[in-house]
Amino acid sequence: MDTNASPRRTVPPSHYAWTPAHRAIALEDLPALRAALDAGADPHEEHFGKTLLHHAVDVERDSTAHRRPPPHADAVALLLARGADPTRRAALGTGTTAEELAVANGHWLATELFDAWKRARGLDARGLRRRP
């Protein structure tokens, strides 16, 4: 067993090829995600067709669905604070935005954070600049 793994979640061996940031998200290891970002991980990096933000939405939603605690969006919040853009489309995979994924998966807390992110930047609901 990996001694660095979060006691809350394990990752199949095939996923150990992930970048440190993606692995931290998969393990729900927020300190490791912070360390990866501090070390220069790009908040928009993609792996297996998912940006870090897409991956965080998936993992946090799945975690909440399986354990039924109140929803959480700690990795999403950290990534937004570090410059991730929820309106950016993944270059690989489905080509969706993390925001679209959150809405489709019912991750309402991430959706709230994405809406606040857009308002703070003067963007409308579609992510376009509001007209003065």
Characteristic terms for this protein:
Serine Threonine Protein Phosphatase 5, Tetratricopeptide repeat; 132 residues; 2 strands; 6 helices; 46% helix; mainly alpha
Report what the structure shows.
With 132 residues, the protein is mostly helical. The chain has a single domain, classed as Ankyrin repeat-containing domain (Serine Threonine Protein Phosphatase 5, Tetratricopeptide repeat). It contains six helices and two strands; from the N terminus they run ααββαααα. It has helices at 20-26, 30-38, 52-67, 74-81, 98-105, 108-120; strands at 46-47, 50-51. The chain has a two-stranded antiparallel sheet with strand order 1-2. Helix 1 (20-26) packs antiparallel against helix 2 and helix 3 (52-67) runs antiparallel to helix 4. The longest helix has 16 residues, at 52-67.
* SSE pattern, N- to C-terminal: HHEEHHHH
DSSP helical segment count: 6
Uncertain residue ranges: 1-9
CATH architect. name? Alpha Horseshoe
Rounded mean pLDDT score: 83
Report the portion of residues in β strands: under 5%
Overall structural class, as computed from helix and strand content, comes to mainly alpha
Q: How many β-strand stretches?
A: 2
Looking at the structure, what is the overall shape?
globular
Terminal Cα span: 56 Å
Biggest sheet layout: 2 strands, antiparallel
CATH class: Mainly Alpha
